[in-house]
Amino acid sequence: MSKIKFFLSKNKEKIRYKLIQGKKPLTIVFLHGFMSDLMGKKIQVLAKFCAKQKVSFLAFEYSGHGKSSGQLSDYGIGDWIEQSKEIIEKIIKNKKIILVGSSMGAWIAIALISKLKKNIKAFVGIASAPDFTKEIMWKGFSKKVRLLINSGKIHYMSSSYGSSYPISKKLILDGNKNLVLKRKIICNFPIRLFHGLKDKVVAVSFSIQLSKTLLSKDIVVNLQEHGDHSLSHKEDLKKIKNELANLIKNSR
After folding, report:
1. Three-class SS state of 205
2. Confidence (pTM)
3. Where are the domains of the chain?
4. By three-state DSSP, how is residue 22 classified?
5. Which of 124, 138, 199, 249 could be a cystine partner for 100, CB 3.0 to 4.6 Å?
6. Which positions ≥6 away from 131 have C-beta within 8 Å?
7. What is the pLDDT of residues 81-122, one digit of tens each?
8. Per residue, what are the HEC states of 133-177?
């Protein structure tokens, strides 16, 4: 049965989360992207999928996102990594997990690998965007925008979804402290990376590079011919669910 509750972190942040308890000793943990929330299509689809598979499902909104507490501009990737680690360790009773990270969520998942390594049975990246605060945002900003951010002001970056992203100095500096693409991370579990060839937000090269960062004997990069950044179309989600079903079946 699906329940939406609030988790109080050690820093007194109220984190909204969705939990489905399954009979099988495995939990799918979904980590959403920047400025997303629990209402996203992938979460809705994967929650139903997990219920049918009889595995547990956990998703939550980082501070500053959705109905969790805090202002987004006051937080950075390091805060969300630590929040994710805390809630996973406190909420999940059975420690066998498959991490599924969408866009920024993949970056958070990668950072969690070394912290939760013994518990991770697989990682699925969807339009993975590790290091995006540096590689996409900062490198793409003009000198004027960089000066604005360095002065402590918020830069509102337009998005392809018709809204704007509040980019703070905290977000940029915190991102620089948690870069992962130039590291080598040993993974003793399967890695599946999905990326759309029509993704105009995060280049396919991010997933290609990530396949060299994550060292696994079982790693596959799935390039979706018609997929965009969301990878939320029926055909995209079908392929992701099929892969997850195989990972669940082979999980030990």
Report:
1. helix
2. 0.95
3. 2-131+180-250
4. coil
5. 124
6. 107, 175, 179, 180, 181
7. 999 999 999 999 777 999 999 999 999 999 999 888 889 999
8. HHHHHHHHCCHHHHHHHHCCCCEEEECCCCCEEEECHHHHHHHHH
